Amino acid sequence: xxxxxxxxxxxxxxxxxxxxxxxxxxxxxxxxxxxxxxxxxxxxxxxxxxxxxxxxxxxxxxxxxxxxxxxxxxxxxxxxxxxxxxxxxxxxxxxxxxxxxxxxxxxxxxxxxxxxxxxxxxxxxxxxxxxxxxxxxxxxxxxxxxxxxxxxxxxxxxxxxxxxxxxxxxxxxxxxxxxxxxxxxxxxxxxxxxxxxxxxxxxxxxxxxxxxxxxxxxxxxxxxxxxxxxxxxxxxxxxxxxxxxxxxxxxxxxxxxxxxxxxxxxxxxxxxxxxxxxxxxxxxxxxxxxxxxxxxxxxxxxxxxxxxxxxxxxxxxxxxxxxxxxxxxxxxxxxxxxxxxxxxxxxxxxxxxxxxxxxxxxxxxxxxxxxxxxxxxxxxxxxxxxxxxxxxxxxxxxxxxxxxxxxxxxxxxxxxxxxxxxxxxx
Length: 426
Ligand code: FES
Ligand SMILES: [Fe+2]
Known about the structure:
Elements: H1 4-11, H2 18-23, E1 28-32, E2 43-47, E3 50-56, E4 62-66, E5 80-81, E6 86-87, E7 94-95, E8 101-103, H3 109-118, E9 125-129, E10 132-136, E11 159-166, H4 170-176, H5 183-186, H6 203-208, E12 213-219, E13 222-231, E14 235-244, E15 248-251, E16 259-268, E17 271-279, H7 289-292, H8 318-322, H9 335-344, H10 361-380, E18 387-388, E19 391-392, E20 401-406
Antiparallel strand pairs: 1-10, 2-3, 3-4, 5-6, 6-7, 7-8, 9-10, 11-17, 12-13, 13-14, 14-15, 14-20, 15-16, 16-17, 18-19
The site of fe (ii) ion has 5 residues, from α5.
C-alpha cells in the first residue's frame, strides 16, 4: 500500500513531474529498427507524455526529433523524408537527424542560412542495438552509460524484440513483470491442477508449490530476486529474476532456453509500451515468440492488437474457464493475460486501496527503491541504478535463471552463466 502522494510521485511521468524528470535520465527503446526504412515513412513516437518522430535518413542514420515542426508546429510525421532530413509538407522547412533546421525556403534567400541557425531546436541522442532504436531525451550534452545488456550486443538473428501496448500506467506494466506468485494461477490450464504454459517447461514445479518464499539481494541496479519453492526430496525450485530499475525485468528461464527481457517504457501517464525481447546468447533463435504458442505472427510493433478491451471483456471465454482454462483470456500468447489484469485495475491503479501479502514483497521493494530514486534525483540530481562504485554497470553480466537444485544449495551463489546440472519437470 502506498499513500496517495507516493502513488502520484511514482506514476506521473510527463514533463515537470519528478518521476518524468528521473526517467528522462535513461536510455529508452522506442521503435523496432526494422520499422524504419531509408527515406521511408516516419514513425510517430509518444514518450513520457511528449510527441516525437523517428525516421531513417538517406545515409541510414536514425533521426529522432520533436513531432511539431519548428516553424508552426505541423506534424513532421507527415514530412517528406529525403536528402538526409525531414521536410515539412506545410512550408518546406527541413529538419536534420539531430533536430537542427537545415533549410527554411520561405525566408529570403540571402538570410535563409543565418535564419535557419537561429531557430531553437532540441537534440535527442539516438543509438541502435538489439533490433531497437534507443533514445536519450534528457536534453543533456552527455548521455548516461548505454545499457549493454546481452540482447543489445547480439547479431540480429539472435534477438527478437516485440512491442506490446498496455492501456495503463508504466508502473503497472513493470509490476506485472515482477510477480512470480501469479504464474501458477493466471497462466494455469487444465483446471489449475497443472500449469501448462507453453513458454515455461518448468511450470510443474510451480503447480506443486504455489506459495513461493521470496528472498532478495539488493544490487546497485535494483535487485536480484529468488522465488523459492520447496519441492519433495530435499530440492528447491528457484526462479531467479533480475530487476534492473527503472525499466527492466529479466524473466527466469532454464539455462538452455532462450532468454526473455521485459521492459516497460511509459508512453504517457496512462499508456505503456511493454517490450518483450527474446534472445539466445549462443545461437540464432529457432522459433519466434508466436511459434511457441502455435499461433500466427501478429504485428511485431503491436503484438496484442487483437487483445480487446472492457467493451468485450478482452474476449474472456467463460466456457474455456469451465473446461479448465483458469483465466479464460485465451489470447494468442500468454502475455495477454498479464496485460489484461493490469488494464483491469484502471489506467492508474489506486495503490492506497491495496492489501499486500507475503507474495508482494517484490513489488514493495521495487517501489521503495523507485521512491528513494525520485527523492534523491529531486534533491541531489543523482541518477541511480547505472553505476557501481563509480563504474558503469556491467549489464552484460546480468542474467536470470530458473533451476531446480538441492535445498542446501544457496541460490544467491548460483551462476546463471555457469549453472549446475538441473532437472526439468515432467
Ligand atoms: S509548419 Fe512546418 S514549414 Fe511551416
Ligand atoms: Fe505472467
